[in-house]
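Blinded run. Sample ID left blank on purpose so nobody reads anything into the name before looking at the predicted structure. Input follows.
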Amino acid sequence: MDVVYTWVDGETPGYAELLSQYARRKLDLNPNRFRDNLDILRYSLRSLERHAPWIHKLYLVTARPQVPRWLDPEAPGLTLLHHEEIFDPEHLPTFNSFAIVCNLYKIPGVSRRFLYMEDDRLLGRRIEPSDFFTPDERIKVYPKLGATDAGELHDSDDLSPWESALAHSNHLLDQRYGRSRRGSLHHAPLVIDTASFARFAAEWKREIELTTSSRFRSKHNIAPEHMYPHHLLHESQAVSVPTLQVYRDSSYLGLDNLWPLTCIGLRHLRLRRPKFVCLNDNFGERPHPVSVRLTERFLEASYPEPSRFERR
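Blinded prediction complete.
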């Protein structure tokens, strides 16, 4: 099984100007979505090599000409992919993660089933294919407690782009399967089956095209990382992992400028050692230097050995 990462670096020369050229709202320029000041991807690849050595190939999807400064593009088992290789040209440039995820199943040569990893995700301990598949090969889904915004809110202007996409996804699922309250998923890697995603994309062709053509997260976009696994659950092609196991194996930490909270959160991760970790950038405009240093030390202490994907 392969693994696919998505990555962006807002500090690439010319990227900020390109972003400003297409942005229509202040939130389109939110630095939390494009900043890469911690090199978390570097440590994520170290965690992958240590804790999932059975992974076959790795694909890194990003915008041309972006390449992490530390990455060896010629590393064995690595394919660096730019957006034009999976997007229609008229939809580029894109700054919309929903659009990017909608197109990952088109990656040439990717395994029939692959793990989708965002660039702020890490592995805390050994994982196995059994963490993602049942004995009868159905996909395991890791839902959180609590419900996402109901489908009837999909036309609301009071939701964030993320909340709006969840509500619209729920609206579409309600139309197909009946009304239901659906939880969001915890921060574990998502298995994408290319054949079932192609059927999913055909089922909601118009909505996929609208999302793919949106350069930024926009009203009536879908959130494929929410809608696709819930579609699989409705079709009995996936099963929900029990709640206690979800919270035992997965952990989310918002990296905050209140550095004592960051310190406590990182210590908690060291003690718990969950399988799946998300370190989400919540720094705002100016990351606090103490919070940044604490996180850097955590990453280097947790994953000190370079991976084969790094320049020597």
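Unblinding after everyone has recorded impressions. Strands lie at 2-6, 58-62, 78-82, 113-118, 121-123, 139-141, 190-193, 238-240, 250-255, 276-281.
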